[in-house]
């Protein structure tokens, strides 16, 4: 599922764009969760860091799209932005905020479909991330920054480049979610990112981050086979 935000003060246009996105979702089978905001200030004050793509109007009252984009980049470096405008010259200013593209209003379905197809294809090849939820809210955790996951009380503790993060999922769910990204469950309480493995000595797994996790005796043989295959692909 992709989280899409529409930020525009033209209520009728927002409704039309939402209908086009729902049509796209129905035709492609790609799930979209859509949130609406009436101006840049509302978007910033209620910003959801799990957002994947923002359709952002440039000309709005209270806070225009370019100002909002600057503030968004302070909150989220990864989210994609597509600017909406009636005047082409304004759109060109948006590229300083790493905009994916701009769309001139009014919008036709064929243009939206082309833009969404292109964005999704690029998005799939970007650094993947998972969404983590805890009592502080929802957060994106880049897979490339996730060293390992361990069971912690009744939850999970994710060890990342940016520190530890509590996650309200169980290990089975996390193992399934990370299985495509080079993670291996080497122990009932540990799920390790193979790209961080530096050395294995007996049942100790040393990571490049300086941390140590453990591999259980029953899983050691399979773990070494998978690790050897992973290292072989890196050569």
From TrEMBL:
Sites of 4-aspartylphosphate modification: 57
Residue ranges annotated for the HTH LytTR-type domain, each copy included: 130-229
Alphabetized PROSITE patterns for the sequence: HTH_LYTTR (PS50930), RESPONSE_REGULATORY (PS50110)
Superkingdom classification of source: Bacteria
Molecular functions per Gene Ontology: DNA binding; phosphorelay response regulator activity
Protein known as: Stage 0 sporulation protein A homolog
Residue intervals of the Response regulatory domain: 3-120
Coiled-coil boundaries: none
Keywords annotated in UniProt: DNA-binding, Phosphoprotein
Task of the protein: May play the central regulatory role in sporulation. It may be an element of the effector pathway responsible for the activation of sporulation genes in response to nutritional stress. Spo0A may act in concert with spo0H (a sigma factor) to control the expression of some genes that are critical to the sporulation process.
